[in-house]
Amino acid sequence: MRTINDIKTLLTPVVSNVYIDHITERQVVNFPYIVLLEMTSENMFADNMTYQEVMPLNIILHQASRDNTLEASIKSTLNQNHIPYECDTNWDKDNLLYATTFSINL
Question: Whole-model pTM?
Fold first, then answer.
């Protein structure tokens, strides 16, 4: 089973700034950067038993301008490591950045 630190290790060669959980308000970061955010677990259970633990993880790529080559590199890294993902990109007008989220399960 992979951990959040394993994912950070996989992505650091692609994007050098990878943070787990959050960036502090005072922290100055350069684009692009990734935040790894664990979501609420989606365990499979029945009959008062947990049969499979599932921990969703969002890999959120923040960019000042959209870089399709960088996004393709992240997709390639996930695919090469047999990590299925869902992908969605949004423009964050409040922070003036693109946020591309790759949703995976640990």
Answer: 0.87
CATH code, domain carrying 78: 3.30.2000.30
Q: Quote the Cα angle for 68-98-76, to 5°.
A: 35
Q: Containing domain of residue 90, as a range?
A: 4-105
Strand partners, 25: none
Instruction: Evaluate whether 64 touches 79 at the Cβ level (below 8 Å).
Output: no
Which tens digit of pLDDT belongs to each residue from 53-79? 778 999 999 999 999 999 999 999 999
Question: Number of structural domains, the chain?
Answer: 1
Q: How far apart are CA 87 and CA 58, in angstroms?
A: 10
Q: Which of 5, 16, 25 is nearest to 73 (CA)?
A: 16
Q: Summarize pLDDT for 38-58 with one digit per residue, the tens.
A: 987 777 778 888 777 778 999
Collapsing DSSP to helix, strand or coil, 48 comes out as coil
